[in-house]
Design brief:
By secondary structure, the chain is α/β, with parallel strands linked by helices. It contains 8 helices and 6 strands. It has a 6-stranded parallel β-sheet with strand order 2-1-3-4-5-6, with helices on both faces. The longest helix is centred in the middle third of the chain and has 20 residues.
């Protein structure tokens, strides 16, 4: 188990790595790539209001309100049959509105599964530049069994579900998309904690934080912003 100091160093290392300057010949090759608009995808039983802290940090980092979007949706519906298609339509609308070729997706908890399905199976690999998961049950969570009997989204989050198995099959991080996950060793919702990291992603431990605490944690926010800038 990493100490709080080791976790902080790991996050800072990630930030420094992602923000490292390009070699001189690369900088001279052309203009910097335009920044993608960011779409924030909340988790189960939540709403876009959970993103207040991260939106504020992104604005402080130079993003304008016209570059920041929060998708609201009914979290009790199916990842693969309903929600990923609705997210795809929302992404298309944001791209049309902004003129952007690609968007960046940041998902918390259940939102990670919805956005991953869109990227892997819904054509999102061609429309997404960066994908971020904050405390996502990417390989399932045993706590979802508590509501799986009556709730489709909970069933989708259980270990071994149709959604979890298909997202884990083959390449977990397909396409030219850049992937990152941020996970806590004290997450009371995602069990086990090791469910969050993905093969092929930049996986950053954030220390001992509660499941929803990642949404307002300054070090986690700094890591997300550094990754989006990479």
């Amino acid at each position: 188990m990493l100490t709080p100091r080791q976790n902080l160093l790991a996050l800072l290392t990630l930030c420094l790595t992602l923000l490292a300057p390009l070699p001189a010949h690369a900088q001279a090759a052309g203009r910097a790539t335009p920044r993608n608009p960011v779409i924030l995808v909340h988790g189960y039983n939540a709403d876009p209001g959970v993103w207040g802290s991260l939106r504020e940090d992104l604005r402080a980092g130079g993003y304008t309100d016209s570059e920041l979007f929060s998708w609201g949706y009914d979290t009790h519906q199916s990842v693969n049959e309903v929600l990923s298609a609705r997210l795809a339509a929302y992404v298309d609308e944001v791209r049309r509105q902004t003129g952007a070729t690609r968007v960046d997706l940041v998902g918390h908890s259940f939102g990670s599964l919805v956005s991953r399905w869109y990227v892997k199976y819904g054509g999102g690999a061609e429309a997404v530049g960066h994908w971020v998961s904050l405390a996502g049950p990417n390989h399932g969570t045993s706590t979802a069994w508590a509501c799986a009997l009556w709730d489709q989204a909970c069933r989708d989050m259980t270990p071994g579900s149709y959604v979890v198995k298909n997202l884990a099959s083959g390449d977990e991080t397909p396409g030219a998309v850049k992937y990152a996950t941020f996970w806590s060793e004290c997450d009371e919702v995602v069990n086990p904690d090791s469910s969050v990291p993905l093969s092929g992603a930049a996986n950053a431990p954030v220390g001992c934080l509660g499941h929803n605490d990642l949404l307002g944690d300054e070090a986690t926010s700094a890591g997300v912003r550094a990754f989006l800038a990479s």
